[in-house]
Specification:
Length: 160
């Protein structure tokens, strides 16, 4: 969903920075979380975008670690024929070795796509649009809405 609203320059900048922090790698979720914490009382837009970016970036880091671990495991498996029959592969490694080495492209493509999607979020947030990542964006938005509803609504005991 990308509806445009009138947000202040500061709100848009903070929201865009939360998404653009994806370039920093492992500290990216911290940047989004800091923006969420500092803005949750001031700007629902910046806070929501910050939390969403933090969740997206944290999930991204976990996915990247898993992708690289899987690649490493399968790449190591490609050494089994080489170790089992070293005499046969004196001149060149077995073909499965090249497949394992070439499959390194997959985590790189995943990283590039993840980063580009994060930058797309930064562009959208910088323009003041309500940007939502697929899946994690809806979860973060629901959590922010629930927090705002509980902060605004009076306790049930206040009526008696």
């Amino acid at each position: 969903m990308t509806t445009e609203k009138d947000y202040t320059q500061e709100e848009r900048l903070l929201a865009a920075l939360a998404h653009a922090a994806i370039i920093t790698g492992m500290i990216a979720p911290i940047a989004g979380l800091l923006i969420y914490i500092t803005q949750k009382e001031k700007s629902a837009y910046a806070a929501g975008q910050g939390l969403q970016a933090a969740v997206y970036q944290l999930v991204g880091l976990l996915v990247m670690v898993i992708a690289w671990a899987c690649w490493g495991f399968f790449y190591m498996l490609s050494f089994i024929p080489l170790m089992a029959n070293a005499d046969k592969y004196q001149d060149a490694p077995p073909p499965i070795f090249w497949v394992g080495l070439g499959s390194m492209v997959c985590p790189f493509i995943l990283m590039a796509a993840w980063g580009l999607y994060g930058f797309w979020g930064a562009v959208q947030a910088g323009m003041g649009r309500e940007f939502r990542y697929a899946i994690v964006g809806q979860m973060a938005a629901r959590w922010v809405d629930e927090r705002q509803d509980t902060a605004v609504s009076p306790p049930d005991d206040a009526d008696s």
